[in-house]
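Support reply, case 0932

Customer input (verbatim):
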Amino acid sequence: MGAFEGLTEYLKESLIDYAMQFGYHDSNIAILEGDIDRLRRDHPGIYQNLLTCSHHADRRTPLSYGQDLVASWIFEDLFLANVNKELLNISLAGADRNRMILPDQRTATSTDYIITSNSGYRIGMELVNDYTSFWYRNHKLHLRDNKYLRLLNEQSLLLAIALSHGIAKYTILDFRDNPAATYIPSHKPYGGKPAYEMPVDRNRLFDFSWESVSRSLTQAVL
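Our regenerated output:
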């Protein structure tokens, strides 16, 4: 289950309503509505960009990949809207922060957010979600391509949130601690692309709420 289906089930309002609240471009609305003909007719450049994203789409159709991508942006923006701003100064940092689908070669290679402490300390943070309960059941997660190495090199944080089948948990992996990972040369769920497998400590899986995440991130940054 991808972000589009998972968040459709989890969120109280429709994804289209959230997209409109956040002022998303009409091309994103067409994608969420599944109207590929309108996307091709009214936004041909975006449509062509979407077709170039086969590497990240894996086995998904371009439309399905686009719906998952836009749904993921919505959750990222919900995070930004709900995090405790008195405790944390967080801003979007990825290449897709303008919420427009880019050609595959311009896909973000930087972290999703930058967190800045009151003292001026800055650290990147990546947000990943699981809508299948895989992390919760198996106590491991997978990062595709070179994401693990990038986060390690940047000494960033990874916020992993599992939302599925009544489960709402999160954990934070701190790459300043050089967390262990196992390299997988060919990972089937990612269409045979490489991945890194990381253990998820069941004792570090916490009940998800925006308040709890805010406190945990504050403790990690300070």
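We compared this against your earlier run and they match. Two observations from our side: The radius of gyration is 17 Å. The longest strand covers residues 122-130. Please reopen the case if you see a mismatch on your end.
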